[in-house]
Amino acid sequence: MREIKERNIALCIIFSIITCGIYTIYWYIMMVNDLNEVSGHPEDTTGGMVFLLTLVTCGIYGWIWLYNAGKKVDEMDGTGDNSILFLILAIFGLGIVDYAIIQDKINKHATVQTV
């Protein structure tokens, strides 16, 4: 199992704004890989491939991934099915909220804590 780094959600959002979305790409790719690892699905599609497929399909694959991420988050914590919530937020342009929720769940399972 690879190390999962805890990320400061507020800083991720601030860096995403400051870099006009470039940091969001890095965050997205790392979040996909981390979610695959902590949810027990390390063989699922990698972050780079998810990003590429999202670009090629003009964002549609990103919505599909967020729907499936909701299922993975539910498997991890048993907090209820978040898939429809994630999909609706993404459709209305609030994907960053989805990322923050997913990152929060990943941080609870992080193996490398930030100081």
Structure commentary:
With 115 residues, the protein is mainly alpha-helical. It has one domain. Helices cover 67% and strands 0% of the residues. It is built from six helices and no strands. It has helices at 9-18, 22-38, 47-56, 60-77, 83-91, 95-107. Helix 2 (22-38) crosses helix 6 (95-107) and helix 4 packs antiparallel against helix 5 (83-91). It is globular. The mean pLDDT is 93.
Helix % is 55-70%
Please state the structural category. mainly alpha
Radius of gyration: 13 Å
Task: Characterize the main sheet.
Answer: none
C-alpha termini separation: 22 Å
Compute the number of strand runs.
0
Round the mean pLDDT to the nearest integer and report it.
Answer: 93
Oligomeric composition of the shown chains = single chain
Provide the succession of SSEs. Answer: HHHHHH
Total DSSP helices: 6
Low-confidence stretches: none
Shape: globular
Q: What fraction of the residues are assigned to beta strands by DSSP?
A: under 5%
Integer count of domains: 1
Topology diagram in text:
Elements lengths: L8 H10 L3 H17 L8 H10 L3 H18 L5 H9 L3 H13 L8
Helix pairs in contact: 1-2, 2-3, 2-4, 2-6, 3-4, 4-5, 5-6
Provide a quick synopsis of the model.
The chain is mainly α and 115 residues long.
Keywords for this structure?
67% helix, 0% strand, mainly alpha, 115 residues
